[in-house]
Write a structure and sequence with these properties.
With 247 residues, this protein is an alpha/beta fold. It is 46% helix and 15% strand. It contains eight helices and nine strands. Helix 2 packs antiparallel against helix 4 and helix 3 packs across helix 7.
């Protein structure tokens, strides 16, 4: 029976004894397709280490734009987004988007190579299969804390287990239609970020406007402050205003 896994089937090599990872035929084919699509390191996108539907009309739109293998994304999620969401998640319509570049042949270019694109796809799959932000944002946070290891199977499994996600669901999502399904989600996400003029990981947008940017290990464009309580205060104020308009 064909193994449909999209992920490496061996643990990542130790630094002392480097060895190329082994992939299933399907995963190798997807990676080859990604390479042929033209993955490269694009300096126009900034990552600092290199420079259930409910009544969402009353909720405040909060969106973060990231790259899965970017330390600024790690810091942004860990120091600002997750602590804020822990206090106001019920008032927020949360969305996770990614930064990259689409190609003419239906591919996607990711700044840190094809492994980052696969990390992005897995995080989008988590959001698709488990739409509760407490689950998929937690999973994303877990991955980005060890971003250098993405997409090691051991890391994916550890983070999936921690947040009650079935590993096979993620793998099936990423592998569906020989990878075309996940790539389609990534293309849509990257297109959204591009159309919004977002090119820096991590960019936090609140109510349709840039609220804060983590760039090069520093905060910028954070009118109103870059602490979780500052973001919480803004969300609560917007929520009260929006709820007043809808009542």
């Amino acid at each position: 029976m064909e193994n449909k896994s999209l992920l490496p089937q061996t643990e990542e090599p130790t630094p002392q004894r480097p060895a190329p990872p082994k992939y299933t035929t399907r995963f190798h084919g997807v990676l080859l397709a990604l390479v042929l699509a033209g993955f490269w390191l694009a300096s126009s996108w900034t990552c600092g280490h290199e420079h259930m539907h409910q009544e969402t009309s009353s909720k405040v739109p909060l969106e973060i734009h990231i790259m899965s293998k970017c330390p600024d994304a790690r810091d942004c999620i860990e120091k600002l987004v997750v602590p804020a969401m822990a206090n106001v998640s019920e008032k927020v319509d949360f969305k996770l988007s990614f930064i990259g570049k689409t190609t003419d042949d239906d591919g996607v270019i990711c700044k840190h190579g094809q492994t980052e694109c696969l990390g992005n796809i897995l995080e989008l799959c988590a959001a698709s299969e488990y739409p509760d932000p407490k689950i998929y944002l937690g999973f994303t946070r877990c991955l980005v804390q060890r971003y250098e290891e993405i997409p090691a199977t051991s890391l994916i499994k550890d983070c999936a287990l921690e947040y009650g996600i079935e590993f096979e669901k993620l793998n099936d999502c990423a592998s569906r239609d020989d990878g075309a399904y996940g790539m389609g989600m990534l293309r849509d996400s990257v297109t959204r970020s591009s159309e919004l003029g977002v090119s820096t990981s991590c960019t936090v947008r609140l109510d349709g406007k840039t609220r804060c940017v983590r760039d090069g290990g520093k905060w910028r464009d954070c009118e109103g402050g870059s602490e979780p309580e500052d973001l919480v205060s803004d969300i609560e104020k917007l929520f009260d205003e929006t709820r007043g308009r809808t009542e």
